[in-house]
Amino acid sequence: MLTRPRYDQIAALVLIVAVGLGVIFLIDINPNILRARVGAILPGISVAWLLVVLLGLIASAGADVLARGVPAIQQRDLPGVTLGDKRFELAPAFWLLPFFSVVTPFAFFRLFNVGLQGIALVLALLAACGLLVAVLVGQHYALLNMRSISTQARLGLHLITYILAFGNFSVVLFAQYRMLVTAPMIALISTLLCIAVLHWYTSASTGVAATVGVLSGQAAWAVSYWGTSFLLGAAVLLLLFYVSTSLLHQFYSAQGLRRHIVLEYSLIGGGLLAVLIVAVLR
To answer: Are 160 and 100 in contact (CB under 8 A)?
Structure first.
């Protein structure tokens, strides 16, 4: 049975995010306000960052409620929290994309605030709201027991995941933290976004995704020595993340990897990597 998303609840959640981001942009006019430093190596944390993370968590909580409202999710073995005699089920895999849909546009377009000024803030707001709507609607349809619809919805969510991965990689590389900070951040982001892709196909996605995260973190070390722009470096990391995650996606969805699939991704990945390396070295 085709059930439609709760657009009234989605609209309310997106409105909260839009208003919250507007307030955060006003606070972020002076990023040095209430800025704390944890240590010499770790980056400073401003109140704007704390608020945008809180806003991302609110979006995740709303996504959890919306996902558990879909009847098909009852077929999944969800983790839960027991408080007294009551048990509350949670859907943590559905938190990831809504969280990054709010945080990533804020962080990415903030990089261009000097050149674009107010336009960057408008783009961040539009991107965050647009991505959040697409993710919430996509997760609803991806849960339905209708193969054609759920497959298309999952592919759409995978595309959003790769967009968010590029944005996050760009932000981390632009900051030029020490590699003791950069590599773990890239690894954590890659792990979480890989889980967002693989949880549709296997319940054992965490361990496999952690492997992808470690590989991405190691690749970040190599990219840091190239001395290239942060966008090209992020493109290289995205390519490696895309190939590894796509191969795992094919493996779990098709219960194995066929030779032509491996060859196809090897040619695509190798060709694009060669183009990026040439662009970096020029």
So the answer is: no
